[in-house]
Amino acid sequence: MFKNDEMSLCHITPWANFGDELGPPVVKRILELHFNCSADDLAVSNLKDIYGGGGDNGFLNRTGTKIDTCLMAVGSLWRMLKSGDHIWGTGAAYSKTIEQRCLGRRIEKVANITVYSSRGSNSAKEIGKYCSLNKAHHLNSTTGEEEVAIEGAGDAGFLVPFIFPEYKVVKDDAAVIAAKEKCIIPHKKDEGNREWKNTSQNTKKLTVGIGWVNMTLALQTCGEVVSSSLHGIILSEAFGIASRRLRLSGAPGDFKFNDFYSSLRRSEPHKVGKIEEAFATISQPLNLNDLEEYAKRVLKTFPIHLFHAVGLASEAKEISASQ
């Protein structure tokens, strides 16, 4: 379905993690909704299959593979880029990653990358400041006018409740929410932290390795979510579930959380390191109109021009981000 036969949708699952799984299903569903056909034939590459070790540079060795150019979508994928790659709706885990990649500091330099949108305004500013880009002309998600500036429209993982109709946004019903459980979602590197082990028996723990479909189903049983996983926060916000980030360790870092919140709430609430405080200062969900507007901003920056459907029987259609 890529117009360029040497292009592939790239992602990586270094360990079982629902957030890292989201790129392929999100992109495939967008294509299915737009072209009204199956996207099963879309070229998808898990970069884990070619990871050769050697730290960051290990992700970059595509020698002997069929992967020439990647479209990166969902996840903190900047350290896996090669020159000429395309980026939509993703970001970086750490504050220096974009600078290091674009200036070639301690890792292979990338150039002539095409960025359609980024996770938030923080990463968008870094990209505009440090990177050599192929300018991606697209419609500004707010004004509708064509522009070349990098837009921090948001994280594409947020789209899950809006493009998969089987997953509904939690309605703002106090009685329904009160009956739901308190849930925690630790980042993989935080799972052994003592803080999680000290939680109440009335708190349900969701592990990142249960798969993205199981996670979205499990989240619908939660009235409040405390998470050190970024996509635990992103999906909770998207489903309209009260949530709070818990900061336990240096991993996975603050930058990607700050970046996401800059696109949704302008800034992250003050950081907390105790579960009790996180639940006591839970952030109430945004209203449905705000959630839909966020999803529309992200969708408008999707690079649909990279794709086609051979033998399409019906006209392509615009995708709605309404519930």
Compose a concise summary of this entry.
This protein is of the alpha/beta class. Helix content is about 30%, strand content about 15%. Helix 3 packs parallel to helix 4 (about 120-130).
Strand content: 5-15%
- Termini separation (Å)? 27 Å
Strand order of the largest sheet: 2-1-3-4-5-6
Helix/strand class: alpha/beta
Number of domains: 2
Largest sheet geometry = 6 strands, parallel
Rg calculated over all Cα atoms:
19 Å
Order of helices and strands: EHHEEEHEHEEEHHEHEHEHEHHH
Shape: globular
Question: What report would you give on this structure?
Answer:
This is Polysaccharide pyruvyl transferase domain-containing protein. This protein is of the alpha/beta class. 29% of the residues lie in helices and 13% in strands. The protein folds into 2 domains: 7-159 and 295-306; 161-291, Rossmann fold (3-Layer(aba) Sandwich), CATH 3.40.50. Helix 3 runs parallel beside helix 4 (121-130). The protein is globular, with a radius of gyration of 19 Å. The mean pLDDT is 86.
Structure keywords:
six-stranded parallel beta sheet, 323 residues, Rossmann fold, alpha/beta
Explain the layout of strands and helices.
Blueprint: E1 7-11, H1 18-21, H2 23-35, E2 44-46, E3 69-73, E4 86-88, H3 97-103, E5 113-115, H4 121-130, E6 133-134, E7 138-139, E8 146-147, H5 160-163, H6 174-179, E9 181-185, H7 194-197, E10 203-205, H8 212-219, E11 222-227, H9 230-238, E12 242-245, H10 255-264, H11 275-280, H12 288-300
Parallel strand pairs: 1-2, 1-3, 3-4, 4-5, 5-6, 9-10, 9-11, 11-12
Antiparallel strand pairs: 7-8
Helix pairs in contact: 3-4
